[in-house]
Amino acid sequence: MADTISPPAPAASRRRSTRRVSDTVFLGLSATSAVSIMVILAGVAIFLIIQGLPAITANWADNKDLSSIQNPAQVPWTSFWEYVGPLLWGSVFSALIAMVLGAPVAIGIALFISHYAPRRIAGALGYIVDLLAAVPSIVFGLWGIAVMRPFLLPLSDFLNQYFGWIPFFAGPVSSTGSTMLAGGVVLAVMILPIVTSITREIFLQTPRLNEEAALALGATRWEMIRLAVLPYARSGMISATLLGMGRALGETMAIALIMSPSVLYSLLILTDGYNSQTIAANIALNFPVATEIQRSALIGTGLMLFVISFAVNMLARFIIGAQGPKTGSKRRRKEGKGA
After folding, report:
1. CA angle, corner 229, sides to 226 and 232, nearest 5?
2. Which one of 228, 240, 296, 328 is CB 3.0 to 4.6 Å from 210, fit for a cystine?
3. Would you say residue 267 has pLDDT above 90?
4. Which of 264, 271, 249 is nearest to 182 (CA)?
């Protein structure tokens, strides 16, 4: 008897058709989401350019509203770039202080949670760190005013007395604590959750075989972390640190409450009245009382902050992309020499 091939069952055909429809719908939703992100980003950039361009291109020397904006010394600004320069410096400087103080602590907390702490303690500590991300920035600002400013006064006196020859610690020490140091410490605490959570997840993704191989060869736990965990998580740590820097660059209320605002270039972190104001705090303090042309100038500074944040993210992508191939090529060269 000849073999006969029966046609596919209608139910199976319907399932395949339904699967194709669901795949098409999911693809459409994913593509729409990706395009919408680009559209929103472009819309924000276009809004900032249109609203800030009148002040960027204006003649500040002939416009009293622009030349006197947020300028207690009443020294007239002659151009937009002369005005935005100190604000850019203040934003980047405060974010760098936060990175120097906060990133090592965050990475240490992540290592303790992922490789040292018992499971129960690690779970509770991870929950507490994640809970910090839900605290509003205004609360951190009030905490900085009531706790950190008086707490840092003895440290400021010590740094000025014994390390005053370093430019950062020179100058008259503030008696109120409204300094760049206090703002940087509060920013460092605020970036702890994002840096810690990302690096903790990256540390936990380290291949278990790599860790066990290092321990089997006689390495201590710290040697295992240094040889197996940290090289694997290097790019992730850089990415997490730069994301924390992005958070610090855009912080507003905590800096506005803690620091004494001044639009100037300064390296001093222990004095008040000589603190370089940040762009975000400057916008928050001046936007409600600004005239139309002054608001255009403030929006223009927001455009500069947008560009800086975008550049930080691009730098993170570049570093991560550059590290991967170099690491792989170095490993292949070592393997070739060993062979």
Report:
1. 115
2. 228
3. no
4. 271
pTM above 0.85, yes or no: no
Could you tell me if residue 182 is inside a domain? Answer: yes
- How many CB atoms within 10 Å of residue 190? 23
DSSP codes of every residue in 234-280? HHHHHHHHHHHHHHHHT--HHHHHHSPPB-S----SS-SS-PBPPHH
Angle at 240 between CA 238 and CA 243, to 5 degrees: 110
- Mean pLDDT for 72-100 is 84
104 near 193, Cβ under 8 Å? no
Would you give the DSSP letter of residue 79?
S
Would you state the structure tokens that stand for residue 256, as one six-digit string?
Answer: 């506005």
- Token pair, residue 40, equals 């929103």
Predicted confidence (pLDDT) per residue in 145-182, tens digit: 999 999 999 999 999 988 889 888 888 888 888 889 99
Residue 249 lies in a domain: yes
Q: How far apart are CA 53 and CA 179, in angstroms?
A: 33
Note the pLDDT of residue 151. Answer: 92
Q: Is residue 157 part of a domain?
A: yes
- The pLDDT score that the predictor gives to residue 206 is 86
Cα–Cα dist 241/255, whole Å: 20
Q: How far apart are CA 62 and CA 65, in angstroms?
A: 9
- Distance from C-alpha of 200 to C-alpha of 111, rounded to nearest angstrom: 7
Beta bridge partners of 262: 276
pLDDT at 60: 82
How far from 84 is each of 28, 78, 94, CA to CA, in Å?
42, 11, 16
Crossing angle of the two packed helices 149-163 and 180-204, in degrees rounded to 10: 100
In the chain, the number of structural domains is 1
* 253 falls within a domain: yes
Structure tokens at 328: 């792989």
Tokens 């291949």 sit on residue = 207
